[in-house]
Amino acid sequence: MSRQRITQEIDKATRQALIELVRKHPERTLSELLAMDNVGHRVGELTVGELITGATGSRAGGAVAKARGPQPQRVSATPRPISTRTAAEQTAHDERVLAAMRGFDASVSTKELRDAVPEGSDYQLTSALRRLLRKRRITQISRGRGARYEIN
Domain ranges in the chain? Predict the structure, then answer.
């Protein structure tokens, strides 16, 4: 067995022992554990998933990924396709965007609108916002990635 392999095995065993020790004493706070002279730096390297499952795992997968559970899917990841080729279809989409904006108390961001209007692509949403701005039905409060809009 190579020296590197032996070092990896020792690190893994030490990590597993530390996980078991932390799990045996749930009354300890993270501050107390981090302040410990001999193991505090190693506690900071543990993941929440390792502490929940009690098993060591790579940060990218293994038992840690199982501990996270199913990941929620964003609505915008798979937008429902719509057609906005004709003026009538564009107007209908603009009205959906306006209806979603009315559901908010104050100004609304593009991301919030994306989640509220799952129909169409990001480009179609941006196009609808530009059309509504041109028609002066909405006002743009800020620009760039943090752009916010409100109804006139």
Answer: 3-68, 75-151
